[in-house]
Amino acid sequence: MSDVSDLLAGINTAEVTHEQIRLRGLDIHVQLQGEGPPLLLYSGIFGEVDLWEPVLPYLTGFRTIAFDPPGIGKSQLPKLPMNMFSLAELGTQVLDVFGIKKAHVLGGSFGGAVAQQMALMHPNHVDRLVLVSTSFGGFALPGSMRAFYHFSNPNSYRPDRSDKVAGPMFGGRLREEPHLMSGMHVSRPASLRHFLYRGSALWAWTSLPWMWAIRQQTLIVCGDDDPVTRLANHKIMAAMIPHAQLHVVPGGGHLMLFDSAERVGPVIARFLREGHPKEDRNRERSGKQ
């Protein structure tokens, strides 16, 4: 069997459950699926939990925990903007609510920044770290100005607008198939306030001075056609994080994790399973009998 076939042969058909929890005075919407080693999912800047649908089939054997960020989807907007430190703390508290002491952490785009911050602030909560299409914030080499304009324009996320700007904004597969954007669960900010509150966490934030302190085994995945986060930035991250490995997806764009999950999901799954070898699991089961 091919690597992909081998992964899909055991697709997790466990029921997806949704819960509303109360944290830091906010109602937070959480989605859980599967059984196995826990895996916390941090979405992009306007991504809702359902955005992960294309990726979940490749994460069979893990218990995935995703949540709508504050002010996105079904999660409540805070009274004041939350910075990167608060967002990393929030993810850790989500794990605490479900009695999870340690989890793998996967962050895409904006979520990759939160994942880095969590790995530094709460290292005992983070097992393996996966960073996809992300950056180290301030001092990073800038992406395409055209992409930045569309990315930072709330109107770009309107259904009647997204098909027209998806290609130059995100690159990769969306250049030829921009209609895929309308099927993704990327939430248009409900108001300018929602937009500013969510984006403000990136202002003046950077992980550049302390990436060397991230000690987890780390996988960095990027595409070579990402107009938002340039390939050069991912190479810098891979060089500075001590236990990092870089995987470049030819022709991959900023949203390749979701528009080309079949190319990215197996890579992530293999990396995460390295920490949970099948032989070790069989040995543990044999010891219990």
Question: Which descriptors would you attach to this protein?
Answer:
289 residues, alpha/beta, 8-stranded mixed beta sheet, 17% strand, globular, disordered N terminus, disordered C terminus
Shape summary:
globular
Number of strands: 8
**What strand line-up does the widest sheet have?**
1-2-4-3-5-6-7-8
Provide the helix percentage.
Answer: 25-40%
User: Which series of helices and strands comes N to C?
Assistant: HEEEEHEHEHHHEHEHHH
**Number of separate helices:** 10
Quick structural overview:
The chain is of the alpha/beta class and 289 residues long.
Question: Could you describe the 3D structure shown?
Answer:
With 289 residues, this protein is of the alpha/beta class. It is 34% helix and 17% strand. The protein is built from ten helices and eight strands. It has helices at 3-8, 84-97, 110-121, 145-151, 159-170, 192-199, 231-240, 256-259, 261-273, 278-288, and strands at 17-23, 26-33, 38-42, 63-67, 103-108, 126-132, 218-223, 244-249. An eight-stranded mixed sheet has the order 1-2-4-3-5-6-7-8, with helices on both faces. Helix 3 links the parallel strand 5 (103-108) and strand 6. Helix 2 crosses helix 3 (110-121). It is globular, with a radius of gyration of 18 Å. It starts with a helix and ends with a helix. Residues 1-12 and 279-289 have low confidence and may be disordered.
Write the layout of secondary structure elements.
Elements: H1 3-8, E1 17-23, E2 26-33, E3 38-42, E4 63-67, H2 84-97, E5 103-108, H3 110-121, E6 126-132, H4 145-151, H5 159-170, H6 192-199, E7 218-223, H7 231-240, E8 244-249, H8 256-259, H9 261-273, H10 278-288
Parallel strand pairs: 3-4, 3-5, 5-6, 6-7, 7-8
Antiparallel strand pairs: 1-2, 2-4
Helix pairs in contact: 2-3, 4-5
